[in-house]
Amino acid sequence: MTIGTIKGLLFVMLLILAAVSDLRKREIPDIIPFFILLTGFLSINLLDAFLGLILTGFPYLLAAVLIQKESGLSMGGGDIKLMAACGFVLGVPFGALQSIISLIIALVISLCARLFSSNRKLSSITLPLAPFFCVGGIFSYSALLLSAIN
């Protein structure tokens, strides 16, 4: 088993734990992003990892501040820490890919939930984001592994 495979298995297991916790409790324990960050140290490109941490996590921090001010909605700190840690593991391009995949899936699911809900207000729909980040992370890490092969 290669170090990339071990890193990927740990990454996926931790993402699944974050998703299950977010679904059950609407909270991501701080220890999960911490362990994801530690996973990133297996086979690391230090510059890409730190840029990924900052450039993947910062848009979520910015969105949390702006969304809360403008609409009263909120994005949890666990989501921000989770995505920053994922950016550390995936680097900039694959961290961005995770964000794109995750947020598109979340948007589609929330629009479907709105269509089939008796309450048609979009602001009344709340979804935990970690399950979507989990799916996006799995696809992104797979793409990372495939790009390393080619």
Main sheet record:
none
Q: State the separation between the terminal residues, measured CA to CA.
A: 19 Å
Rg calc: 16 Å
Q: What oligomeric state do these chains adopt?
A: single chain
| Strand coverage percent | under 5%
Describe the structure.
This protein has 5 helices and no strands. The chain has 150 residues and is an all-alpha fold. It has one domain. Helix 1 (3-25) packs antiparallel against helix 2 (31-40). It is globular, with a radius of gyration of 16 Å.
Quick gist of this model?
79% of the residues lie in helices and 0% in strands. By secondary structure, the protein is an all-alpha fold.
Which terms would index this structure?
150 residues; 0% strand
Record the SSE blueprint.
Layout: H1 3-25, H2 31-40, H3 46-71, H4 77-115, H5 130-149
Helix pairs in contact: 1-2, 1-5, 2-4, 3-4, 4-5
